[in-house]
## 1
Amino acid sequence: MALSESGDGKTVFFTEDSGATPEEATNAVKSALAKGADVVLGPLFASGVTAVAPYTRANNALLFSFSTDSTEAGRGVYVFSFLPEGDARRIVDYAGSHGIRRMVILAPIGRYGDRIVAAATASAVSANITILGTERYEVANNVLTGATDAARRAAVLSRGGARGQTAIYLGTSQWNEPTTISDSRALGSWFVRTDIATRANFETKLRNQSQRRATRLAGMGYDVMTMLARMGVQGDKSTINPTTIENPAGFQGVDGHYHFENGIIARDLAVVEIAPNGARIIEAAR
């Protein structure tokens, strides 16, 4: 769909099955490179990206990873995903600029939570926020269930610094789902999210054209192909290079505006407050 809308008819797109293991991903990339691929989209898993990156770099091919792992980012490898670090930095920075001075970090147990804790802790320093403590919780079906249990423990940690009556919950883009937004415990909370208007337009267009549901991965694939198709004018692949990809002005995608910093995607995020009648934007995406 992206090529038909933005391409010039000279870009050749083909697929390879990257499988579920690093070995399968490596074989798929080797096959693609042997066929003359200049750009590789995928693989999905961090282990696969680590395995194939040396091959794309050795062949001067660009790699756009859909993994959330940014270890290999840079030197021709671009992470095109939704990263927890961006969410954490944005909401903590907003909180600091709006009078929040003490914070307890509540994060799920696991790698995702580890990254939230690290990013929030680092951002708190620049935002002049004191971290009073950190509590971890098991992930539940409802994102608030584990978090509110952890918040009760956090109130003890903070020694009055984050008591439930006065504390404001700060959330990531994972809160942008009906169950959380309609949960009375979340009233007054702030969280971040991408541009849902452009996403809705993409979902409608894809459903009308292919009768398929637009997954988050579909949007990422569409955005990368649109960006590359617009760069490759009249089949001139030399225009697809790090300078144009890393242009600070960035690009408009189905989930809003984005640009790259050191090979890692940085998405514009709006800050949203959960109100009785739903979520409302309190600071526009940036």
## 2
Amino acid sequence: MTKDLFDKYIWLVDTIHRAGRITLREINEKWAMSPLYDGADIPRRTFNNWKEAIQQAFDINIECRRVGGYHYYIENPEDLENSTTRSWLLNTFTVRNIISESKGIRDRILLENVPSGQKHLTPIIDAMQANKWLEIVHGSYWYDRPETYTVQPWCLKLFNQRWYVCGYCRERDAMRTFALDRIIGLTAMNETFEYPADFDPQGYFADFCGISTDSNIPMTTILIRAYGLQVRYLRSLPLHHSQKEVATDPDEECAVFEYRFRPTWDFYSTILSRMDQLEVISPASLREEIRCTVQRIASRYQESPGR
């Protein structure tokens, strides 16, 4: 699947989903205003081909109600909200679609750039669909020179505006995660693999807060005290799916949240990014690690920046 076709499929799903019910004529009217428009209407045969491809690629069924003029609609639209992948695809394209149609205010809508998704995302998805090995030339921050790996792409994950591909790495004989923005070269190989039926992408990351994984880190129950507005922020956007509010100040000046996962670098980074608004209460070992890190940060500011 080329990126051009991928965008057209998502555009069609988004257009029908936003309309609720829509005819092919109405679809073509919106198509003429789309940035993907190539100067010609979508013929019925092409439309039917796109419908079949969308069903195979995204498991989204576009049905037709013949009574009253052949209106097309998404079967079980609530499934789109329940699937994080399909929901993300639609939300992303819906925003892009609306912006392209709002020419008068386009410059007033600012989005974050996700450069890693522009070049490598589509060929990786193609390899995942065909169960093909990937040859990845990866420029890690840990090594001076790029390394080449052969990888079975099992899943993709978006975290903090960066895409990652995760799967079995032949050279490491283990699971590895590669940031797409550090991929220098990517080639789909002719060699195929059998996707493991017992692999659960959501479950693989469930015990971690972020993208970093390390099964050698024990599962840990963590208590965090949040102050000020961070209390409301955590309620609306939890740090982790295990989050539970276990104590609350009556004036809502602070609250204590409980978590259970394996703390990796991503967790430390998140805590420190909230400045003085989050405090690790327990376990004592984790609290001590954060305290030592804060002390090292403070020591840097005690020195002159011009040394």
